[in-house]
Write a structure and sequence with these properties.
Helix content is 41%, strand content 12%. It contains 21 helices and 16 strands.
């Protein structure tokens, strides 16, 4: 009745808000067995070599700020008080406003009255401010005070934060490795004696059989929100090699959406739609969980937290339904997969005018230590978790009681992220996705490229709008070349040319 053991923006924003400080995960990341409060060893902090122990931290707003109870505040609670005691720093946390935080950051930096540690959201904002000289270069501080950064972040992600060869901010690590997957109602396939589809042609045959035997549109999808179409159809586009926004051809980046392979993908989807194999309401669907729960669809591309919701609902209904994530289908050239995840979108910086740069760096190092990470993951032994067979055990209630602990992370580690998923019951739905192929989006590792960044959303939305028309027969696929011309006229050519200035130098 539940998901097979072998076995996604989903359950609810409120539920997911407590899952991760950044959002992340790794198949190699098991929970740490250390259960002590953070120490003050040299691996945790260099506070002993820092004279000024007063550090101010201004972080982005997080919903868990609203979850303090009684007299607890962000600067006075059982966890932050331990952080202060064990680190040796008199640290004071503040929060940027929920709305217009970028504007507030600019005002703070212009005022000269700056915190020692500041969160900056968005790649474009980070690079713009770094270019203006607002941040202290971190290379020397990292060598002296932040040795833990080398184990916290892969070099490739650190290097992606460089401007003219220097690091001005530490990317806030996102531990989540996967998001969406191909979810299948295994009970429907079992009833009809069908195997899991492995190729694009298998999928077509399977959908046709289900349509004929069950009289349902077996493949459902969402197209009612910007970006939803790309997400829902990602595994099918990937079978044609065009699942990401860009691809490499002849040594240069090109938009996947303009390639002959993308036209071939649209042609196949149009055939499926015209034969009733795709949910006829897909273009207006904003949520497909109910269709998977009720068995009016057999396949959908869904986030792992949504799979948890669907599975629980099916179990409550006692219909005998079962679920499973299956491997992304392959195309004729063996292409498949989803776009890789886990690229940071915010940064920890030390403002150029900060009063205690060395202290800021040492405190960052302390938060990045294994001991501190374990402490912030589980809390205080006996109150927030217990130890069984040498392993921390934490209930959902215990995890939720200190959901605000995520305020003190400077990003995710794999053990911490996986522990929070486990407490909330998500891990059996997240872990199966880790083994499936992921395709690298090269532009994710680029610095800010204005001609690309400022146009990307408009170009994606234009592509989605026309893809829906092509699939539903509202625009003839014979006009695909005209669509390409329209796309480039909207800034597509200028965008990819600008991105290639970075990419060709990078190679």
């Amino acid at each position: 009745m539940g998901m097979k053991k072998m076995a996604f923006l989903g359950l609810s924003t409120i539920l997911l808000a407590g899952v991760a400080a950044g959002c992340g995960g790794n198949e190699g990341g098991g929970a740490s067995t250390s259960t002590s409060t953070p120490g003050s060893s040299s691996t945790a902090t260099n506070a002993g070599g820092v004279k000024n122990k007063d550090v101010t931290v201004m972080r982005v707003y997080h919903p868990s700020m609203e979850q303090f109870k009684g007299s607890d505040t962000m600067n006075n609670n059982k966890l932050v008080n331990v952080l202060k005691e064990k680190s040796g720093f008199n640290v004071k946390y503040e929060s940027l406003p929920k709305d217009n935080s970028d504007q507030k950051v600019s005002i703070i930096l212009a005022s000269g009255d700056v915190p020692d540690i500041l969160w900056v959201n968005g790649k474009s904002n980070y690079f713009k401010l770094a270019q203006q000289g607002a941040f202290e270069p971190l290379d020397d501080l990292i060598k002296t005070y932040i040795p833990n950064m080398s184990t916290y972040l892969p070099k490739e992600i650190t290097d992606a934060a460089r401007l003219d060869g220097k690091i001005y901010g530490m990317p806030v690590r996102v531990a989540q490795k996967v998001g969406n997957g191909m979810l299948e109602r295994t009970d429907i396939l079992k009833e009809l004696g069908l195997k899991d589809p492995a190729t694009i042609s298998d999928m077509y045959t399977t959908l046709k059989t289900i349509k004929e035997k069950k009289n349902i549109a077996p493949l459902t999808a969402t197209g009612g929100n910007p970006g939803a179409f790309m997400g829902s159809f990602a595994p099918y586009a990937a079978a044609y090699g065009v699942g990401n926004a860009t691809m490499v051809k002849d040594g240069k980046l090109v938009f996947s959406w303009l390639q002959p392979e993308y036209k071939a993908f649209l042609t196949e989807m149009k055939k499926w739609y015209s034969e009733g194999l795709i949910d006829q309401e897909f273009a207006i669907n904003k949520d497909i969980k109910d269709k998977m729960i009720n068995g009016t669809a057999a396949f959908g591309t869904l986030y792992w937290a949504d799979a948890y919701t669907i599975d629980k609902s099916i179990a409550d209904k006692k219909t005998g339904g079962t679920l499973q994530y299956i491997a992304p289908i392959t195309g004729k050239n063996g292409q498949s997969g989803f776009q890789e995840e886990g690229i940071p979108g915010s940064y920890i910086v030390i403002p150029k005018q900060a009063k205690n740069k060395e202290g800021a760096a040492a405190y960052i190092n302390y938060i990045l230590s294994k001991e501190t990470d374990t402490f912030l993951t589980y809390g205080i032994e006996g109150q927030d978790y217990k130890v069984e067979n040498g392993q921390p055990v934490q209930t959902l209630e215990q995890s939720n009681n200190i959901a605000w602990r995520t305020l003190y992370f400077f990003g995710d580690t794999d053990p911490s992220f996986n522990a929070r998923l486990k407490a909330k019951g998500f891990l059996p739905y997240y872990e199966p996705l880790l083994k499936f192929k992921q395709n690298r989006e090269e532009t994710a590792y680029a610095p800010a490229v204005d001609a690309y960044d400022t146009k990307f959303t408009e170009l994606r939305n234009f592509t989605e709008e026309n893809a829906l028309k092509f699939i539903m027969g509202k625009r003839d696929l014979g006009e695909f070349d005209k669509f390409v011309q329209e796309f480039n006229a909207k800034g597509g050519k200028a965008a990819i040319d600008a991105m290639n200035e970075w990419y060709t130098k990078k190679k």
